[in-house]
Specification:
Helix content: 40-55%
Number of domains: 2
Largest sheet: 8 strands, parallel, barrel
CATH topology of the largest domain: TIM Barrel
Strand order of the largest sheet: 1-2-3-5-10-11-12-14
Distance between the termini: 10 Å
Radius of gyration: 20 Å
Oligomer: single chain
CATH architecture of the largest domain: Alpha-Beta Barrel
Number of helices: 14
Number of strands: 14
CATH class of the largest domain: Alpha Beta
Length: 348
């Protein structure tokens, strides 16, 4: 069996995020996924586990599977430290590391890290440029709006990271049009969320435009989208079970003023629904928010249904131009999750 037999897409898994993961079970799951041919694993970072520590441990417990941060928050670290961390993981993993970066959102950046959520795209650009200087082995001298190295008026001098030049791919997790444009212009890959192959242009048109203006093409960027998977005969129940997660995205994954996930669904044609769900969630009406989610906000943003329906859905992702899927597999036990992974890989 190969994971690319039917669609040509690579497969990935997401791990971590909220420090509720059994470490032993996690390692066994990733090791088994590696043996089945899964291409990569991406570690989440929100307000639970950091994105780095799990990958360092997995680097020692695996041999082939690629290891990516999905994502390291740019406001939580100085760019030079992010570069040093990436270089360390590159060495520990034998060159299997991929650096995923994102600006996160104001609730986490300002609430958890105490950093102003100001100019997130400019900060992202400056971070990427500084990191690439470090990867090239250049002395780091940078005069940006938010980052000045060395610090003006201080005793510092331009320093070179004590590491040979290294090629580490940089993936960007972006959702807003301008940041998607930048992804197309500068990134090696895209970590997409809130993506629907039925409304692919809501994301990919902006990436393609950015690539074209930079003298690149969409094919120069590895397009990796998150995809929730649920397989079974009771399709109505499968859809119903996932509405609470959609409501959480619409209402909790951002502030009332800034929610990039909500905005992405709006651009895909669900403006009234997304706004209504957010209002219910903010008002504390969580169950009502979940009931307000239309079926299409589940079925068009993942692969849910019978085996035939899910297989067709994967073909639609591939036809839309997606190169890889980060599979989000919900199961009641480790055994059930592994069985779902095997079934999913057969269909892809």
């Amino acid at each position: 069996m190969t994971t690319a037999a039917k669609t040509g897409m690579k497969t990935a898994l997401a791990v971590g995020g909220y420090a509720r993961t059994d470490t032993k079970a996690l390692v066994e799951f990733v090791q088994e996924a590696e043996s089945l041919g899964v291409d990569s694993v991406w570690s989440a970072e929100a307000w639970g586990t950091d994105a780095v520590t799990p990958l360092a441990y997995l680097a020692a417990k695996t041999e082939r599977i690629k290891l990516g941060t999905g994502i390291m928050q740019i406001s939580a670290r100085a760019p030079s430290m992010t570069a040093m961390t990436a270089l360390a993981l590159h060495d520990l993993s034998g060159g299997r590391f991929m650096l995923g970066l994102g600006a996160s959102g104001p609730q986490v950046v300002e609430g958890l890290h105490g950093v102003a959520y100001q100019g997130p795209l400019t900060r992202l650009k400056e971070t990427v440029e500084i990191i690439r200087m470090a990867f090239r082995g250049d002395k780091i001298s940078y005069d940006g709006l938010y980052h000045q190295l060395p610090r003006p008026g201080g005793q510092g001098k331009p320093l070179r990271i004590d590491h040979p030049p290294a090629e580490i791919p940089i993936y960007l997790a972006t959702l807003a049009p301008k940041s998607l444009h930048y992804t197309g212009a500068a990134a090696d890959g895209w970590l997409g969320t809130s993506f629907s192959p039925d409304h692919a242009d809501a994301h990919l048109a902006h990436i393609a435009e950015g690539a074209e203006r930079a003298g690149r093409s969409l094919s120069d960027i590895h397009l990796n989208a998150a995809c929730s998977v649920a397989i079974g005969e009771n399709v109505e129940q499968l859809i119903s079970e996932r509405k609470a997660a959609v409501a959480f995205q619409m209402g909790a994954m951002g502030s009332a003023q800034t929610n990039f996930y909500n905005a992405a669904y709006q651009r895909a044609g669900f403006e009234d629904d997304a706004k209504a769900i957010q209002q219910l969630w903010i008002a504390g009406k969580r169950e009502d928010a979940a009931h307000r989610v239309p079926d299409e906000m589940v079925t068009q943003f993942g692969a849910v249904g019978t085996s035939d329906m899910v297989a067709e859905r994967f073909r639609q992702y591939a036809a839309a131009g997606i190169n890889g899927l980060t599979l989000r597999l919900e199961a009641k036990s480790a055994k059930a999750r592994m069985e779902l992974l095997e079934q999913t890989l057969d269909l892809i």
